[in-house]
Amino acid sequence: xxxxxxxxxxxxxxxxxxxxxxxxxxxxxxxxxxxxxxxxxxxxxxxxxxxxxxxxxxxxxxxxxxxxxxxxxxxxxxxxxxxxxxxxxxxxxxxxxxxxxxxxxxxxxxxxxxxxxxxxxxxxxxxxxxxxxxxxxxxxxxxxxxxxxxxxxxxxxxxxxxxxxxx
Length: 167
What we know:
6 helices; mainly alpha; single chain
């Protein structure tokens, strides 16, 4: 850990306490909160609170960038070996490529320009449908109100007629 304890010149990561730095590193590595809390001798809720702190969040980003930048050459070399090895299955090659590109923020999980455009079109269509439904409900509400007004008017007139007949 000492070889990667300094993430950069005056980064948020470098300003953290040693326990928080260890927590950031272990979170990056995918460790559980329980194992981290045991390693640094603090309660799980403390780590949860740290995770909600802006400076801690920025430190996680700083460390992720630092770690990925330092791991990227090795990852690319391993990837190159996988790609160039004749016995590597095609799916393994593809998954290796996708993993490295995702961690380098060069590839989203499932986004392409075409897919993003389709999602936007769907969202716009859903919004238009919701607006049409709201308008229809509003119109139906007005129709019902007018119908009730007519019924009340009719009942009032009939009631008036009945009262006049009795008088």
